[in-house]
Amino acid sequence: xxxxxxxxxxxxxxxxxxxxxxxxxxxxxxxxxxxxxxxxxxxxxxxxxxxxxxxxxxxxxxxxxxxxxxxxxxxxxxxxxxxxxxxxxxxxxxxxxxxxxxxxxxxxxxxxxxxxxxxxxxxxxxxxxxxxxxxxxxxxxxxxxxxxxxxxxxxxxxxxxxxxxxxxxxxxxxxxxxxxxxxxxxxxxxxxxxxxxxxxxxxxxxxxxxxxxxxxxxxxxxxxxxxxxxxxxxxxxxxxxxxxxxxxxxxxxxxxxxxxxxxxxxxxxxxxxxxxxxxxxxxxxxxxxxxxxxxxxxxxxxxxxxxxxxxxxxxxxxxxxxxxxxxxxxxxxxxxxxxxxxxxxxxxxxxxxxxxxxxxxxxxxx
Length: 366
Known about the structure:
The chain is α/β, with parallel strands linked by helices. The chain contains twelve helices and ten strands.
């Protein structure tokens, strides 16, 4: 029995030694040392391969977590960039958007009204008298016209206008082109100083290079002789009674809403150019100032060149808001005649009274 007990104890000791050796292999021997001056700690690892594997796995996990964090940050930044930026609109911008929405909603109704207007025009018996056929438009060119009067629109005022005013100015120039095309004898239409902002706005009209218009980048003083130039200004003291064929009439291409009063007249005086005004006050009465738009001045000039009188052209072209009325010259003439008649009557009465006095004083000889 004693021999068996000793043998069992030896076996247990051997098993215990084996388990300890396995535990030592699984857990690496590490020594932690702390430096004196710094708070950093250094770990000294054993030479076992299992210890190295554990450290490598930990470092790999750390790298993976850093990569995941960086990718998440990049994705969040890209999502922020992809999100649309909603601008903060002002009250005026909101009103514009509402007007555009209403305009789009009422589009069908407008088309129906336009069709009805076109039907009424077709049924109008006077339509054939006022319309111009395509054949007439093709034949009515500046080259075939008997009118050789040159009318120039000067576009050297870009610096005095904003974008909206330049757009309005170009629209008026386009109206001048359509007016000249529909005239029986078109005038010689020129556009000068066409560059910069005016050129960019004009380029929005596709095919404008093919229009029957003389387009120039140069200033009008470099194209025409100074002796033939007449600048049209409302502030001029010189009255234009007659349009002469060999002269060049300049219209200032300026839309300023009276913010630059007298600018064209001042420039004409500084350059030593002749200037003149249309006979508006001599033919009609107006409630507003005698300053007209570019297309109104052009239309009046074209009508006068085609045989109309000044009064007829002014009353036909000027809109109702100007309050243009025919000047009653006959009443003034009758009033002058009445004054002259009264003066003659007074003179006759005086002469008769003098004769009566002379009869009373002079004795009649027997």
